[in-house]
Design goal:
The chain is built from 7 helices and no strands. It is mainly α. It folds into 2 domains: 137 residues; 137 residues, Helix Hairpins. α5 runs antiparallel to α7. The longest helix is centred in the middle third of the chain and has 127 residues. Keywords: Coiled coil.
Length: 282
C-alpha cells in the first residue's frame, strides 16, 4: 500500500464524529413541540381573522367589507409573520434533518472504509511475515546448495583419485602377470633340466669306471644341479610372492570398483537433490 493511500485512510479515519440520528430526532421533537405550543397559544387567543358574522358570507359580500378593492389584496392576517417564521423554521429543520442523514450515511461509509483498510493492513502484515519466512527458507536452501556443491566437488576429486589408483593397479597387475609367466616358464625349464641331470647321474653311476674317470665332470654337474635347485627355490618363492601380490592387487581393484560405484551413486543423488532444489527456488 502506498503512502498516499495510507494518508488518505488516516484522513478518513480521523474524521469528525457527526451527531447521531437520535440526537437529531430529539431536536426535531423540540422544534415540533415549539411549533405546536405556538399554534396552541395562538388558538387559545381565539382572535378570528374575520368577524364571526362575516364567516359564511359569499365572495361578493366579503369584497364589500373593504371600500377599496386593493385593501382586500394587501390584507394579511395578524399571525402571518409568525406563520412565516414557523414555515422557515420547519424548512430549516428539514434541511438539517437531511444534512444529518447524509452525514450519518457518510459516517457509515467511512466506518466501512476504515474496516476495509484495517483488514487490508492485516493482510499486508501477514504477507510481510510470510515473505520474511520465505526469505529465511531460501537462504537456508542456498547454504545447503553451496554445501552440496562442495561435497560434489570433493566426491568427484575422490572418484578421480580412485580411478587413477585403479589404473596404477591395473598396470601393476599386468606387469606382475608378465613376471609370473616368465617365472613359470623359467621354473619349467629348470625342472626339465633337473630331470635331465638326474637321468644323467643315474647313467653315470651305473658305470663306475666312467664315473671315476669323470669325477670332475660329475662334481661340476652336481654343483650345477645344486645351483639350479637353489635358483628354482628362489623362483618358486618369487612366484609365490608375485601370486600373493597379484591376489592383493585384485582385491584392491575390486575394492576400488566398489568405491567408484558408491561415489557415482552418491554424486547422482546429490545432483538430483540440487536440481530439484534449484527448480523449487526458480
Amino acid at each position: 500500500m502506498s503512502k498516499q493511500s495510507l494518508s488518505s485512510s488516516k484522513n478518513l479515519i480521523s474524521h469528525k464524529p457527526c451527531k447521531s440520528y437520535i440526537d437529531i430526532k430529539r431536536t426535531f421533537k423540540l422544534d415540533d413541540e415549539i411549533f405546536n405550543s405556538s399554534c396552541t397559544l395562538e388558538a387559545k387567543k381565539k382572535t378570528p381573522i374575520f368577524p364571526k358574522n362575516d364567516l359564511y358570507k359569499t365572495q361578493e359580500s366579503y369584497e364589500t367589507l373593504f371600500t377599496d378593492p386593493s385593501e382586500a389584496i394587501d390584507y394579511k392576517p395578524k399571525n402571518f409573520k409568525l406563520n412565516l417564521k414557523l414555515d422557515k423554521r420547519n424548512k430549516e429543520c428539514k434541511i438539517l434533518k437531511k444534512r444529518a442523514e447524509d452525514e450519518c450515511s457518510m459516517h457509515e461509509i467511512l466506518s466501512e472504509q476504515d474496516e476495509i483498510i484495517r483488514i487490508q493492513c492485516d493482510i499486508i502484515e501477514r504477507l510481510k511475515s510470510k515473505n520474511r519466512n520465505l526469505k529465511k527458507i531460501i537462504q537456508k536452501q542456498e547454504k545447503m546448495l553451496e554445501e552440496m556443491k562442495n561435497t560434489i566437488k570433493d566426491e568427484r576429486f575422490e572418484r578421480d583419485w580412485i580411478e587413477e589408483q585403479m589404473k596404477i593397479v591395473k598396470e601393476k597387475s599386468k606387469h606382475l602377470i608378465k613376471e609370473n609367466n616368465n617365472s613359470t616358464q623359467s621354473n619349467e625349464k629348470i625342472i626339465r633340466r633337473c630331470v635331465e641331470l638326474e637321468a644323467y647321474i643315474v647313467e653315470m653311476g651305473s658305470d663306475e669306471e666312467k664315473c671315476k674317470g669323470k669325477n670332475f665332470v660329475m662334481n661340476s654337474i652336481i654343483d650345477q644341479y645344486e645351483g639350479i635347485r637353489k635358483e628354482n627355490k628362489l623362483l618358486n618363492e618369487k612366484c609365490k610372492e608375485i601370486s600373493e601380490k597379484f591376489i592383493a592387487l585384485e582385491l584392491e581393484n575390486k575394492f576400488f570398483k566398489l568405491q567408484e560405484k558408491k561415489m557415482n551413486k552418491k554424486i547422482e543423488m546429490l545432483l538430483e537433490n540440487r536440481d530439484t532444489k534449484s527448480v523449487w527456488k526458480g
